[in-house]
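no rush on this but wanted to send it before i forget. theres a chain ive been looking at and ive put its sequence and its fold in C-alpha cell form underneath. please have a look and point out which stretches look like helix strand or loop to you. thanks a lot i owe you, the record is right below:
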Amino acid sequence: MQGRIIENISNLYQVKVQNEIYETTARGKLKKEEITPVVGDIVDITITDENNKKAVIEKIYERKVYVKRPKLSNITQIVFVVSSKEPKPDLLMLDKQLAFAEFLGVKAIIILNKIDLDKKQEFENIKNIYSKMGYMVILTDAKQRNGIDKLKELLRCNINAFSGNSGVGKSTLINGIFERDITLEGEISKKNKRGKNTTTAIKLYEIDENTYIADTPGFSTFDISEIESKKLYQYFKEFGQFEENCEFIGCTHIKEENCGIKSAVEKGVIDKERYERFCKIYQELKEKEERKW
C-alpha cells in the first residue's frame, strides 16, 4: 500500500493511506541502504497489525524536493511569514529564504503579518518591492483573520512549509486557516521575555485532499550553504536579466567595474537595499566556503 509520511517522532512515522493513518517503523534494509524516511516522503508500507494500525515502511519513492535541516521532502510551496511590527521585518532572513526557495525550485509566498500594528503602513513599501519581482505578497492580521481566506486559496493542492522568525505569527496563521487550535500559539515568558519554542515535531496538517501545511521547528534557520556563493545571484530572480551586461565573464557582481547588475542598482531598477543584502549573503557563503578548505 502506498501512502505519505505525515509525522515523525523519533523512529516512528505516521503514514496516511487514503483515509487511514498507520504507525510505522522503517524496514531494516532501508537502514542498510542508509535511507532514512522523512516527513513528506511517498512510501510503500506492509501492514503488520490492521486492528492497531501498525505497519512497516518497505520503500521510499524518489524525492522531488529535499530539505536537509529540518528534514522534509516533496514540499511544493514555502510560505514566508514576516512581521510588520513586533518583531520588526527581517528582510535579510527573507532574502536568504527566497534564494533557497529559488534554489529548491519551489513556489514562494510572502506574508506580511500584524499589519494592524504598523500605523505608518511601512509594509506597503515592502509589498511593492517584492511584488514587482513577481512574488505573491499577502497582507494579514492573523488574530482578526484578515487575509486568511486569500491565503487558503493559494495553499490549495500544495504541500506548504511555513517559515519565519519566532514571534511573527506562524502558529496564529495556521490556527486561523483551520479555524481551531492546531498548533500551540507562542507565548512570551514572563520571566525572560523570550519566545518559547511551541513546535516540537515535524508534522503535515491536512487542510483538504492533497493540501497540507508543514509546521516545522527550526525551519526558519535552514542552512543555505548548499548554494555556491558564485551562483547566488541566479537565485535573486530580478538579477538574471542584467547579467549579459557584465563586462567580465564570471563577474561576482560585488567589486567588478562595468557590472550589469550594479548598473541596474545605480539606475534604481534593482532595489538598492536588497542588493546590499545580496552582498551580505554572498560574503557569508564565501566565508563558509573558505573555512571548508
Notes: The chain has seven helices and 13 strands. The two ends are 46 Å apart (CA to CA). The first strand starts at residue 2 and ends at 9.
